[in-house]
Amino acid sequence: EPEVTQTPSHQVTQMGQEVILRCVPISNHLYFYWYRQILGQKVEFLVSFYNNEISEKSEIFDDQFSVERPDGSNFTLKIRSTKLEDSAMYFCASSARDRGNQPQHFGDGTRLSIL
Amino acid sequence: AQTVTQSQPEMSVQEAETVTLSCTYDTSENNYYLFWYKQPPSRQMILVIRQEAYKQQNATENRFSVNFQKAAKSFSLKISDSQLGDTAMYFCAFTPVFGNEKLTFGTGTRLTIIP
């Protein structure tokens, strides 16, 4: 069964540095998402992406964050000037449609640790 | 805005027994989807079951079934004949049918199946 893959599985970065989290969505999917899960807290929506542009973003997704689909397969989340509070699990998801009858498929996540 | 509440942070049950995980939600939407996702220790979130709000019949997937009470805004998950592989975090999630497509998650229930 096709899967969403994320790399790296664990990223350790010094505070203030930039980090790029990578995702390869399922190949025939058109909608892409990033979610964040701070340790011990709920999974939170960050951003959704369709047709090469952001379709929705949460208030968490400020100017520090950006997303890109640089080629036909990758979907990246860039965090500039990282802060301690950016430490979290980051999940990528993709779906064939933006409706619940085509559910979102999640990757394994990237654990981001900011030192 | 939608909210999803899971009031049981942790549960444990003996193997082969039945367990029910609770979820309540709040929304002004009339049409929406509800989901249960499972996150085993391997981290990838996997869709367990989904329910369409306009369907009165409760969804069933093998050992997993839901009790959807739309008026009460309740969406519980029942796992029958529980197995060791059911040990995981379980997240209840909501998305409206129209409008944005993000998932709103509850805080999760950590379920442990005891041999």
Concise summary:
The complex is a heterodimer of chains A (115) and B (115). Chain A has 115 residues and is mostly beta strands.
Walk me through the structure.
- The complex is a heterodimer of chains A (115) and B (115).
- Helices cover 0% and strands 50% of the residues of chain A.
- Chain A has 115 residues and is mainly β.
- In chain A, the strands form two sheets. In chain A, strands 2, 4, 5, 6, 9, 10 and 11 form a seven-stranded mixed β-sheet that branches.
- With 115 residues, chain B is mostly beta strands.
The total beta strand count of chain B reads 12
Mind telling me the C-alpha Rg of chain B?
A: 14 Å
Largest sheet of chain A: 7 strands, mixed
Poorly predicted ranges of chain A (pLDDT <50, ≥5 residues)? none
The proportion of residues in beta strands of chain A is over 45%
Largest sheet of chain B: 6 strands, mixed
Most extensive interface: pair and counts? A-B, 28 and 24 residues
Task: Report the order of strands and helices of chain A.
Answer: EEEEEEEEEEE
Q: Which range does the strand content of chain B fall in? A: over 45%
> What structural category arises from helix and sheet content of chain B?
mainly beta
- Helices of chain A, by number, come to 0
SSE blueprint:
The complex is a heterodimer of chains A (115) and B (115).
Chain A: E1 5-7, E2 10-13, E3 19-24, E4 31-37, E5 43-50, E6 53-57, E7 65-68, E8 75-79, E9 88-95, E10 105-106, E11 110-114
Parallel strand pairs in A: 2-11
Antiparallel strand pairs in A: 1-3, 3-8, 4-5, 4-9, 5-6, 7-8, 9-10, 9-11
Chain B: E1 3-5, E2 10-14, E3 19-21, E4 24-26, E5 32-39, E6 46-52, E7 60-61, E8 64-69, E9 74-79, E10 88-96, E11 104-105, E12 109-114
Parallel strand pairs in B: 2-12
Antiparallel strand pairs in B: 1-4, 3-9, 5-6, 5-10, 7-8, 8-9, 10-11, 10-12
Write a concise keyword list for the protein shown above.
heterodimer; A: 115 residues; mainly beta; seven-stranded mixed sheet; four-stranded antiparallel sheet; 0% helix; globular; B: 115 residues; six-stranded mixed sheet; 52% strand
